[in-house]
Amino acid sequence: MYRSHPRLQGLSLIFLVPLFFNFHTSYGDVGSDASQFPSSKFFAAASHGIWDEGAACGRQYSVRCISDSTPDACNQNQTIQITIVDHIGQEASVPSAYNTNMFLSATAFRTIANSSTSSSPNINIEFQQ
């Protein structure tokens, strides 16, 4: 299993997908109980490298947009706290999901990425637990 080096800050490509998260209660995540979601609506699904066999469910990460191919795509100096609520499993239907560390909720994505200039739902982020 891939594990990232704990001293490295996370740099990743994230992909925003208007998808329905498949919440696997057997992994110990939030299941279908909407009351378990953050009221801020800042949540994400995690890749296998972050998921840690379900131990990441409920973990919080500080996340900020650091770059994109489109100039001014990031909302500068905007850092948010997201909560991991699901796993980006093998069943991910979006091809780029396999190169993605997190799928952010739409609210989280719009907060750190300038949607008026970013035509791509892909941005590079920095994250830290």
From TrEMBL:
Keywords: Signal. InterPro entries: Expansin/allergen_DPBB_dom, RlpA-like_DPBB, RlpA-like_sf. Residues 1-28 form the signal peptide. Residues 22-129 form the Expansin-like EG45 domain. PROSITE patterns: EXPANSIN_EG45 (PS50842). CDD domains: DPBB_EG45-like. This is Expansin-like EG45 domain-containing protein. The lineage of its organism: Eukaryota, Viridiplantae, Streptophyta, Embryophyta, Tracheophyta.
